[in-house]
Amino acid sequence: MDRAALAAFLRTRREGLRPEDIGLIPGARRRTRGLRRDEVAALAVMSTDYYTRLEQQRGPQPSEQMLTALARALRLTTSERDYLFQVAGRNPPSPVSTATHVAPALLRVLDRLADTPALILSNLGETLVQNRLAQALFGDQSHHKGTARSEIYRWFTNPEARLHYPENDRERQSRALVASLRAAYGDMGPHSRAGELVRALEKASTEFRTLWARQEVARRFEDHKTLLHPELGPIEVDCQALFTEDQSQILLVLTAPPRTEAHEKLRLLGVLGTERFSTEGQN
Fold first, then answer.
1. Hey, which of 3, 37, 180, 268 has its CA 20 to 30 A from 229?
2. CATH code for the domain of 242
3. pTM listed for this prediction
4. Is pLDDT of 276 > 60?
5. In the prediction, which pLDDT does 96 show?
6. Which domain holds residue 184?
7. Residue 233: inside a domain, yes or no?
8. pLDDT of residue 98
9. Cβ count within 10 A of residue 25
């Protein structure tokens, strides 16, 4: 671990970001060039004291999870992220797991979407980042671990994962998820994380095996769909998907036309706060 190099890199990247780059309103009396330490710490979900010690060359060696969070908070490119790992004395993530590093270009767009639900997904259906309204609509997806990080896996193994879709739309959603996994499998190969996910689902779900055998391939998201919220009920939304150039990540933005019931419900999401989907919420 090169403490001096790590501290200098963190400081210069922090000073190079502006509040508006991460969706904050710049104050008129800011004394700090770029972001404040507490703002970076909040973005990385760590204490300000821990982050400060890293910049002052006093901190412990960060874990891989901490470095990943810092790379995301500082909007680092893949090369910058790898350098961060190296000066911290850690091996950079392997190419197989690069999809967990959020594309800075998508993050910059997400930072500016405060008034409508938006989230960034990997091509395996893993929620990488959600804004506040997306958490209120879908629940906080950050707590899932292992294979269950994939929405596709949860859809076929956990009945609660289907509760935010109307029953008459679940068959279409099942086919869409399998078709998107087929596309990722073609890109990544049988010995990749996509292949691992396919093998796990073939063991766990008869429905998945049946759909997988249909050989359907697609990357599109449904342009218009109805989602269910436990308190607000059905919400009709339009879906816009923005892919990275290599198709490994997707920014999904959900909107509703102004002056509609759905638009009002999306506005109310911010008032209700984060709600988890549960069986009780659907009764």
1. 180
2. 3.30.450.180
3. 0.67
4. no
5. 44
6. 104-282
7. yes
8. 44
9. 6
Structure tokens at 67: 């470095």
Q: What would the pLDDT profile of 104-148 be if each residue is shown by its tens digit?
A: 888 888 988 888 999 999 999 999 999 989 999 998 887 888 899
Instruction: Give backbone dihedrals phi and psi of 236, rounded to 5 degrees, phi first.
Output: -85, 125
Token digits for 271?
A: 């008032």
Question: What string of DSSP letters covers 237-278?
Answer: EEEEEEE-TTSSEEEEEEE--TTSHHHHHHHHHHHH------
Q: How many CA atoms lie within 13 A of 194 on its CB side?
A: 23
Q: Tokens for 133?
A: 């309204």
Q: d(Cα 245, Cα 218) in Å, to the nearest integer?
A: 16
Q: Does 136 map to a domain? A: yes
Cα 79 to Cα 82: distance, rounded to the nearest angstrom = 5
* Residue 199 and residue 271 in one domain: yes
User: What's the number of domains the chain is made of?
Assistant: 2
Are the C-beta atoms of 190 and 235 separated by less than 8 Å?
Answer: no
Question: Do 130 and 192 have their domain in common?
Answer: yes
Looking at the predicted structure, is the pLDDT value of residue 242 above 60?
yes
76: which DSSP letter? -
The answer on 202 and 116 residing in a single domain is yes
CATH of residue 42's domain is: 1.10.260.40
